[in-house]
Amino acid sequence: MALAVSGGLVVVAVASGLALTVGTAPWARSAPIAPSPSPTSVAVLPATTGSTRVVLSAVSTTSGTVAGGTSVTLEGGNLDAVATVRFGGAEGSVAVENPDQITVTAPPAAEEAEGVVPVAFFDAEGEPVRFDAVTDAAAAVTVDGAPAETVQSTLDTTTAQESVAASTDLAVPTPTPSEAATGVLASTKVVASAITFAYTPDPAVEAAKAQAALDASRLASQLDYLGTYWSDYNSAQYGVIPGNDCVNFTSQSLIARGWEMDGEWNYSLAGGYSSAWASSTAFNSYLAGHPERATPIANTERSRVKPGDIVQFDWDGSGDWDHTGVVTSVVGGTILYSSHTMNNHDQSIDAASAQRIMFWGV
């Protein structure tokens, strides 16, 4: 504190710089003077002023794959106010590490759709949570890419500056608040309660889609082959096995589907037919030994059967397989198939009255 006498005035300067008080000394002998303006206080808001604000200072990522499961870590203050989160129309999960950090997990994208969705946060009562973004980077992740409102400076120096300008004898320095004193308010931007999250392609999902498209194309080729050659044999390419061409025809359709011949299952004009290519019983044994190609399905499991699968019949229950065809349609409990020798297409499997029926899922 400094003391000075000037023209009958006692000037007391407070070192803190927060206030300046001017008064008249009782022993001063001078002419009366006009009263000085009322002293103006310059208040610096303490950090606790912002303690109830939910502050967002950092977001770890704003994108992830459509499969979901991406963790997004938010840092700031009072983030434990967040109880639930929604990515677009789907609810994610919230894990609170501490009041200054939470991690939310993105759910799978609706219908695996790519694109940007808003992310909204809610408190325990279901009310939207509004954030104060401390940095421009944090504010930039809002839905519109800009803060909704800018908080005014915590220092209101307008009145103080007017008072100082009115006095030619006194120079009152404008106090500079410390970072600790102002807390988050001086640099805070109030932003909407939603950030954005960009759903990007997931390699596994994309691979599954590509495989599904390939499988659909191959099945279409197989069914098209059956419809073309069930009565008009493709003998120029595969020959004909008189009275027993059913497995030959089935095998041809599998080639059309994309299967490749191997050492056990094959045909050539020079070498003829392997047993697995020509015999129902041998073909059954071949499929049983190659689970990578087909899966056995019992007659009691008809709900698992789909177009393109293989059906086999044992007419008399002797244990040998007497006939082979390919499923062309499954509608409710009705399964239709196509075959050679009997030369049928879209025939019900129950029309043959076989003692045993089984399927192979391919």
Automatic annotation (TrEMBL):
Pfam families reported in the protein's UniProt record: Amidase_6 (PF12671), TIG (PF01833)
Region forming the signal peptide: none
Domain IPT/TIG: 53-134
Top-rank taxon: Bacteria
Protein name: IPT/TIG domain-containing protein
Organism listed in the record: Rathayibacter iranicus NCPPB 2253 = VKM Ac-1602
